[in-house]
Please model this.
Amino acid sequence: MNTIETHRLGKRYGRNWALRDCTLAIPGGRVVALIGPNGAGKTTLLQLAVGLTASTRGEITVLDGIAPGSPEALNGIAFVAQDTPLYKYLSVADTLHLVSSLVDTWDGPHARARLGALGIPLDRKVGRLSGGQQAQVALAVALARHPRLLVLDEPVAELDPLARHDFMSTLMEAVATDGISVVFSSHVLSELERVCDYLVLLSRGRVQIAEATDDLMATHRVLTGPVEQSDGVAQALSVVHERRAGRHTHLLVRTSNHLSVPPGWQDGPSNLEEIVLGYLRSPEASALAGPGSPTSDTAQAVWA
Amino acid sequence: MTAAALARREARRRLRVQRGLTWVTWRQHRLGLAGVLGAFGGLGLYMLINGLAVHHAFTNLGLSTCGGLSSAGCQTQLSGFEQQYSSTADHLPHFLMLLPGLIGVFIGAPLVAREFESGTFRFVWTQGRSRVQWIVTKLVLLGMVLALSTLGFSALFTWWYGPFNAISGRMTAYGAYEVSGLVFAARTLFGFALGALLGLLIRRVVPAMVATGIGWITVMWVTMTYLRPSIRPPITIIGRQGKGPIPTDGALPFNADIVHNWMQDAAGHHVAYEQVINQAIAANGGNPPSPQGLDAWMAQQHYSQWVSYLPNNWFWHFQTTEATGYFVVAIVLAVVTVLALRRRVI
Model:
């Protein structure tokens, strides 16, 4: 199952393209991190997926071919928007009642138990809860809908570190017990390895990476060697990013084969954060052509 | 499963969907509706108490038995009654006629604008119901409540205004006409739909409220000034020469609404009333002439008095025409709101 599938999807606001030629297929049963710098088009892509906005060109379907915004798609997808907007003047209990009035599937005891465990009083006005508690209410509401896909847009961006940790714990626990598919956007790179198993990197409105994290880590290496040999070595390899530090240069390399390391060079594994940073620093490195062309069968990105 | 069972299941689902949306509408707007109903309730209570006194005085003074309000036998009681009560009857409608605009500003404009301004549209339009279902439910339910409450209020006003209707009629622009009949309710629906659409387009509560207020007043003014006179032109009559500013020979119905009255000279040119009076004073050696003297002088100078008026029994013709116009525009605005929200690029 693909939770979100797009083909040459484009979205223009005025004269600016927020998203351009975006073709990707996000598999289900995964926790997918959608990352990228501010203005990369993350929110636009998610808003297209949940039916809040319409595309300028191209196609997008969700939950295996359903049109976003259709009744089936709306009921199958729970969305936690940026800054977790809720009605501040409603009590938590009324918020639950409101959502239960607007959905086909609702597990009230589930939501109340979750909020009870977090010590969030049901009779309190949402506006009087802390930011972290409001985010937890939004998450509890989304989970109580037992969605096929949970979409979260920068869910922890505004939270303090403790609330951020609590939120992600709740989310990961729910994923483990309910087995739902999750797509969340974030520009927080730390802890990515812990929370996601699939990664989509958007940059300047285009897809740069769309791949399982295991595959990403298996196909990316860091070569370290003397600066003066750097260009020669780089020529033979698919270099994502080159970073020079003093007399040494670090090459983030994409390769599926076993690397024959040139003499005087060291070959080391890379971690997710390094890989992502490498791609972010080289926005043009999206093509992934050459010797390191994609081998993973889960990498379904088509590069425009 | 049989077709009948499927149909039943679908019907139950629809019912559940509607019930849920109804609850959401009620929960989100009960405060606003309480404000509207509270205002109407308070004003209604005042009109009820005042109206009982007015009706009582009207009967007690013998105005219903003195043989016709225009008859000579009624004039003393009539002036006493008017002195005491007609100030409220004249002034209250000026204020009441603005209520539909206030409803548009406070109920209509925030309807969608508030969701945008607070960002909650991303919350409420991504649950299980489409934003089309959401807006249609809100427009229909709130529109019905507003229509019923304004119609009820207009009915109460009509009763309260009854004695004054007998005296001065209810065709008066900026007066009783605006609060009676169907126009008051239709104008409320128009204000509500205008506010909803402007809120959707502007997306900010206060600017949307301001725009709604300005738009509503502008449309009302244009309607009253340019469109209403074209429903049916007023009747113009020539008064008997020299009978004061208004002909009193019975050609002019007692409670008609006088749109215009003016003087004409022998050649048929309009002459200001003051100008005629000043000439009469000058002809009289600088002293104001007696009424008889003025009559005689005017007849001699071939001045004639003209009046155009709207008879009070045109009330329903005007009301249904104007209310239909407002109602149709309100429906169009509501439909545009729904379509715009469906297509809305967020």
